[in-house]
C-alpha cells in the first residue's frame, strides 16, 4: 500500500544524533516537527497517510480529522497515547516498536541498583562538600553500604527486559526470584507475588501498566516487603503509589528507590518524589531507554515497520484488547 505523505509529530523526542536517512526515504514527503502541542495536532495530521508519534496523543476526535490516514507508527513500545479502537474502526493500522533497547534498560536498572547499594551519590556529595576533607580518618563511613552478592532480587515482569536484568544480577552473585502474575498462583518456577515481596532484598519492576498493575506498589504491598529493601522501577510510573513510596523512604521501610519513570512526565515541581530530604532516592528523567544504540535501533525498526506496511505485510501491529 503506497504511502506518500508522512508526518512526524515529535521528532526531537528521539534526540538529534541519529541516522534518519533510511527512515526519511520510506515516504516521498515528510512534515517533520520537533514537537507538537495539542492545539496543533489536528491541522498537522489532516493530509497525512502515515503518522509517527512518540508521545503525542491521537484520540478518536483527532483521528476523525485525518481522512487519508492509513498507518500510525508509535516510536515506542507503549501505545496508550493512541485510541486503538477508533483506529481499528477506521481501518488504520497501528504499529509499535518492541525490544529495541533491552541492553540499555537493563544497564540502567543495574546502575540504579549499584548506586543505591553503595550510596554512591551520597558519598560523591560528601567528597565534594568538604566532609571528606574534614574527616579525621582516610575514609568516610556515614552511609551503610550493602553487598548485592548473596542478596535476593525479585523481578515482576519476566519478558526480555526482566530476563536480561536477571542475568546481570546473577553475574553479581544474586539469587533471582520471578513473580507470578499478581493475584495468580505460582506456576513454572515463579513464586507468588506476596512471597516475592517478603523475600526480595531488591524489587525490580518490568511489567506493563494495566488495570491490574496500576499502584501495584502501594502502602499494603510496601508493608509486606523486607524492611530496608530497595525498589527499582524502569517500567511505568503509575505502577507505584508515589506518595506511599515517598513515605516509606522517609520512614525507612524502604531502604532506597531508583526510579526512571514517574506517573506524570514531565513532572510538576511539587511531585511527591521530587521533594527535598527523601533519603536514598535516585530519580532519572526517563532515560533508561535512551542509549544512542537503542534509539538508533528504534529508528531502524520504525523504518522496517513502514516498509513492511508498504509491501502489504504489516508487522508489530497493535490491536485493541
Automatic annotation (TrEMBL):
<comment type="similarity">
    <text>Belongs to the D-isomer specific 2-hydroxyacid dehydrogenase family.</text>
</comment>
<keyword id="KW-0520">NAD</keyword>
<dbReference type="InterPro" id="IPR036291">
    <property type="entry name" value="NAD(P)-bd_dom_sf"/>
</dbReference>
<dbReference type="GO" id="GO:0016616">
    <property type="term" value="F:oxidoreductase activity, acting on the CH-OH group of donors, NAD or NADP as acceptor"/>
</dbReference>
<keyword id="KW-0560">Oxidoreductase</keyword>
<feature type="domain" description="D-isomer specific 2-hydroxyacid dehydrogenase NAD-binding">
    <location>
        <begin position="110"/>
        <end position="288"/>
    </location>
</feature>
<dbReference type="InterPro" id="IPR006139">
    <property type="entry name" value="D-isomer_2_OHA_DH_cat_dom"/>
</dbReference>
<dbReference type="InterPro" id="IPR029753">
    <property type="entry name" value="D-isomer_DH_CS"/>
</dbReference>
<dbReference type="GO" id="GO:0051287">
    <property type="term" value="F:NAD binding"/>
</dbReference>
<dbReference type="Pfam" id="PF00389">
    <property type="entry name" value="2-Hacid_dh"/>
</dbReference>
<dbReference type="Pfam" id="PF02826">
    <property type="entry name" value="2-Hacid_dh_C"/>
</dbReference>
<dbReference type="InterPro" id="IPR006140">
    <property type="entry name" value="D-isomer_DH_NAD-bd"/>
</dbReference>
<feature type="domain" description="D-isomer specific 2-hydroxyacid dehydrogenase catalytic">
    <location>
        <begin position="33"/>
        <end position="318"/>
    </location>
</feature>
<protein>
    <submittedName>
        <fullName>Lactate dehydrogenase-like oxidoreductase</fullName>
    </submittedName>
</protein>
<dbReference type="InterPro" id="IPR050418">
    <property type="entry name" value="D-iso_2-hydroxyacid_DH_PdxB"/>
</dbReference>
Amino acid at each position: 500500500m503506497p504511502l506518500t505523505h508522512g508526518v512526524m509529530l515529535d521528532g526531537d523526542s528521539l534526540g538529534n544524533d541519529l541516522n534518519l536517512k533510511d527512515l526519511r526515504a520510506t515516504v516521498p514527503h515528510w512534515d517533520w516537527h520537533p514537537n507538537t502541542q495539542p492545539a496543533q495536532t489536528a491541522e498537522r495530521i489532516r493530509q497525512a497517510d502515515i503518522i509517527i508519534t512518540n508521545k503525542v496523543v491521537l484520540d478518536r476526535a483527532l483521528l476523525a480529522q485525518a481522512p487519508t490516514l492509513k498507518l500510525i507508527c508509535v516510536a515506542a513500545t507503549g501505545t496508550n497515547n493512541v485510541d486503538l479502537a477508533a483506529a481499528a474502526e477506521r481501518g488504520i493500522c497501528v504499529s509499535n516498536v518492541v525490544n529495541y533497547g533491552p541492553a540499555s534498560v537493563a544497564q540502567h536498572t543495574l546502575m540504579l541498583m549499584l548506586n543505591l547499594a553503595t550510596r554512591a551519590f551520597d558519598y560523591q556529595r560528601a567528597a565534594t562538600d568538604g566532609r571528606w576533607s574534614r574527616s579525621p580518618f582516610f575514609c568516610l563511613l556515614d552511609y551503610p553500604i550493602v553487598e548485592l552478592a548473596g542478596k535476593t532480587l525479585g523481578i515482576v515482569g519476566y519478558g526480555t527486559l526482566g530476563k536480561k536484568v536477571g542475568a546481570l544480577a546473577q553475574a553479581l552473585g544474586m539469587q533471582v526470584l520471578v513473580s507470578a502474575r499478581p493475584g495468580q498462583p505460582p506456576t513454572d518456577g515463579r513464586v507468588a507475588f506476596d512471597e516475592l515481596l517478603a523475600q526480595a532484598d531488591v524489587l525490580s519492576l518490568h511489567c506493563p501498566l494495566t488495570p491490574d498493575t496500576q499502584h501495584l506498589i502501594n502502602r499494603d504491598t510496601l508493608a509486606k516487603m523486607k524492611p530496608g529493601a530497595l525498589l527499582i522501577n524502569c517500567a511505568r510510573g503509575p505502577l507505584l503509589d508515589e506518595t506511599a513510596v515517598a513515605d516509606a523512604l522517609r520512614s525507612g521501610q524502604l531502604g532506597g528507590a531508583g526510579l526512571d519513570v514517574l506517573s506524570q512526565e514531565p513532572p510538576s515541581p511539587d511531585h511527591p518524589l521530587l521533594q527535598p530530604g527523601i533519603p536514598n532516592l535516585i530519580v532519572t528523567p526517563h532515560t533508561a531507554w535512551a542509549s544512542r544504540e537503542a534509539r538508533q535501533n528504534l529508528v531502524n525498526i520504525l523504518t522496517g515497520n513502514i516498509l513492511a506496511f508498504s509491501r502489504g505485510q504489516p508487522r508489530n501491529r497493535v490491536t485493541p484488547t
